[in-house]
Amino acid sequence: MANAKSAQACGCPVAAFQKMISGKYKLRIVWDLQDGPKRYSEIRTGLLRGSSGSAVIAPRVLSRELKALTEQGLIDRKDFGVVPPKVEYRLTRKGKSFVPVIAAIRNWGARHLAEANADQMVAAE
Amino acid sequence: MANAKSAQACGCPVAAFQKMISGKYKLRIVWDLQDGPKRYSEIRTGLLRGSSGSAVIAPRVLSRELKALTEQGLIDRKDFGVVPPKVEYRLTRKGKSFVPVIAAIRNWGARHLAEANADQMVAAE
DNA sequence: CGGTATCCTAGTAGATACTG
DNA sequence: CAGTATCTACTAGGATACCG
């Protein structure tokens, strides 16, 4: 794959979307941040609810995804500049506008993918 | 949080969704099939509209994605069993139910990702 | 606490050639 | 026409150690 701009300019938002959410935890991160700002370790811990095959998330991975989401303008990073470090991540307006899309995905997934165990409904979040 | 038996049943449809659409062309394929059945080469040609950096799609890749979508129950493969070969792919009911989700994605993407170049709007399909 | 620096593995996609 | 076989390049993700 050559270019980064080709996906956006091709008139196909789907490809751009695919690239935007490429990353194992990105959708979950945005979803988890809808309730308010969270710190780095809170996000990491939150992602372990129903962990997807791994017992712990490599910090390198989480760091990269958070950075990507920040550059894509979905989340905002707030460094308090104190010791010990305190950093909060929160949704931007763009990020908040994306939450309903994730809700649609979750809604569909709950109906078609989690037939046996719809423990927490979308509305119950 | 209720109990989770498997990765899919973890109350996180998002992860299952991510896995389901993992593949460069899956969303596009489903989207393109909403107008009716298409043959293998029609799908390939259709995917080249606004090609994402490549002039041609490796048959191996398209084949794998079609197979995966079939196994996931989103599309159905109909082999006419003639020579020369004729195979049609069409959406299943599950696949059709997924179209609105893609529409939501496209809609969001058109507003937030394709600000400069919204050549073909969602409604213009 | 919130990362970064390395190293490693596995999977995804592309190119190309070939087949029923 | 609709794929399969093979080989290669790239990258996402994981493990681990360490730093500001």
UniProtKB/TrEMBL annotation, chains A, B:
Annotated keywords: DNA-binding, Transcription, Transcription regulation
Any GO molecular function: DNA binding
Key word Transcription present: yes
Span of domain HTH hxlR-type: 12-117
Residues forming coiled coils: none
Name of the featured protein: Transcriptional regulator, HxlR family
Protein source organism: Bradyrhizobium lablabi
